[in-house]
Amino acid sequence: MITDLAQILITTLTVGSMYALVAVGVSLIYSATGVINFAQGEFVMISGMTVAGLYGQLGWPLAPAIGVALVAVLLYGALLMVLTTGLARRTSLIGVLIITIGASIATSGTAARIWDSDTHRFAPFSGDAPFWVFGATVTPQALWIIGVSTVCVAGLIWFMRSTMVGKAMRACSLDKSAATMVGIPVQATVMVSFLLSGLLGGVGGIVTTPLTTVDAYSGMLLAIKGFSAAMLGGMGSIVGALLGALLIAFIETVTVTFGSSALKELPTFTAIILVLLLLPRGIVGGRQEAGLQHEDLTKQ
Amino acid sequence: MTTIALPARNEIRNNAATVLAFAAGMIALPFVFGNGYYLNTLVFVAILALPALGLSLLSGLSGQLAISHGAFFALGAYGSSILAVRLGIDPAISTILAQFIVAAIAAAIGAVVLRLRSHYLAIATLSFAIIVELLIEEWSSVTGGMQGMIGIPPYEIAGMSLTSDKAVYLVYWPITILMLWFALNLSVSRVGRALRAIREGEPIVDSLGIRAANYKIGVYVVSSVFAGLGGSLYAHFVGFVTPATGSLMFAIDIIMVLALGGFDRLWGALVGVALITLLNEYALGFADYKRIFLGVALIAVMLVFPRGLLPGIIDLVGSGLRKGGADARRA
Question: Chief subcellular site (chain B) (predicted)?
Answer without folding.
Answer: membrane
